[in-house]
Specification:
Rossmann fold; two-stranded parallel ribbon; seven-stranded parallel sheet; globular; alpha/beta
Length: 157
């Protein structure tokens, strides 16, 4: 149990894909309490309705132009309605429009945690890096691709 819990009172959007991305995000945020938070992902069928969890499902882009545009429209509508101050994400593709539109149109602070699933940079990381206020990597090898990134102490896998 963490005795140094931190509380965040600004509205926070947690954006992630199912599976490992979600697991890394949960581990990274261990000990942080949110008073106003919502989740953005795609419907993978793996999420149960958690008590008190505001989870919104966007269209999964699947590297298709039409689906990516639909995802961007859905993200824009949700950002307009929710008005987060901070977006925290571990990727992947479903989160890209939320991050970019949140930063450019709503002035959100963006924290991105690059996946430890591979020592090569992710496509999502390469796209969103320039929009992030804090970019966290889990492998020293990532620092050569993301020079302003912060190296995490230990892996979140």
């Amino acid at each position: 149990m963490n005795n140094c819990n931190q509380a965040e009172n600004r509205k926070v959007c947690l954006a992630y894909s199912a599976g490992g991305h979600y697991a890394e995000l949960i581990k990274a945020l261990d000990g942080v309490e949110f008073s106003n938070v919502y989740h953005v992902t795609f419907d993978s069928g793996h999420f149960n309705k958690e008590h008190g969890c505001n989870r919104f499902f966007l269209t999964h882009p699947r590297k298709k132009v039409g689906r990516t545009l639909l995802n961007a429209i859905e993200a824009l509508r949700l950002l307009y309605k929710q008005r987060p101050k901070i977006i925290i994400s571990t990727g992947a593709d479903v989160t890209v429009p939320t991050i970019i539109l949140g930063k450019l149109l709503f002035g959100c602070k963006v924290i991105f945690i690059e996946s430890a699933g591979d020592i090569t940079p992710t496509l999502t990381g390469k796209i969103v890096y320039r929009f992030c206020d804090l970019f966290i990597v889990q492998w020293l090898e990532h620092k050569k691709h993301y020079p302003n990134a912060v190296l995490c102490e230990g892996l979140l896998l």
